[in-house]
Amino acid sequence: MATLELLGFGSTGWGALLILAALMTLAVTATALAIGAVLGAIVAGAKLSGNPLLVSLGNVYTTVFRGVPELLIIYLIYFGGSSAVTSIGKVMGYEGFLGLPSFAAGALAVGIISGSYQAEVFRGAYLAIAKGELEAASAIGMHRGMRFRRIIIPQVLRFAIPGLGNVWQLSLKDSALISVTGLAELMRTSQVAAGSTRQYFLFFIAGGCLYLILTSLSDRIFNGAERRANRSMPASAMGQA
């Protein structure tokens, strides 16, 4: 009975807070994935451009942010960013410490990490497009913008879905590291609940179960999206246009 009360079935329960924390985890992960998609698309374009300088910059980005520990990047963004904002504030006459919002700093940090992986996903997806489709599009007079909208983007997204699903799962787990910034996401709330009640095993198991639920549901969503994209592929393929 006491366990049920702790988990949310009593006036002193933590269940509602854990659910809200799970929603916060989804929100920060979705924001990070969106940031990473923009960065990943830019970096993938740079690596596919053929320009030596852009290719080198793209390689540096993916090498650094895939090779440096995620927690270190979060520390650099949160604490380093807060120090930079504080210095700018002092120049403008504001005295005192200015900290970055935990949500924004965490989403940006995980987004930068996610972008380094998404860049490779998008690059691989582009290279998987049949060259004959692009040649046929050029042969019938499609200009570059139309080819990009009607051939490249749909095909890249179709081929990228499995990889993006893996990146989503990675970002979902990386969101646990944002707890160091004080954001009340799932890991942070589980830690606070465990420390307040001394029921460490109970709340860490509850947090782990919620993570498993989120990852399992996410996996089903991405698998469904992949099946749907593969079913619609023949109708939109260039060879049947």
TrEMBL record:
Record-annotated ABC transmembrane type-1 domain positions: 18-222
Location (main, coarse): membrane
Keywords from the UniProt entry: Cell inner membrane, Cell membrane, Membrane, Plasmid, Transmembrane, Transmembrane helix, Transport
CDD domains the UniProt entry points to: TM_PBP2 (cd06261)
PROSITE patterns assigned to the protein according to its UniProt record, in alphabetical order: ABC_TM1 (PS50928)
Subcellular location: Cell inner membrane; Cell membrane
Transmembrane residue ranges: 12-44, 64-85, 97-117, 200-222
GO cellular component terms, semicolon-separated: ATP-binding cassette (ABC) transporter complex
Family annotation (Pfam families): BPD_transp_1
Gene3D superfamilies: MetI-like (1.10.3720.10)
A GO molecular function held by the record: transmembrane transporter activity
Keyword Transport applies: yes
InterPro entries assigned to the protein according to its UniProt record, in alphabetical order: AA_ABC_transptr_permease_3TM, ABC_transp_permease_HisMQ, MetI-like, MetI-like_sf
Highest taxon of source: Bacteria
Membrane topology: Multi-pass membrane protein
Family listed: Belongs to the binding-protein-dependent transport system permease family. HisMQ subfamily.
NCBIfam families: HEQRo_perm_3TM
Protein name: ABC transporter permease subunit
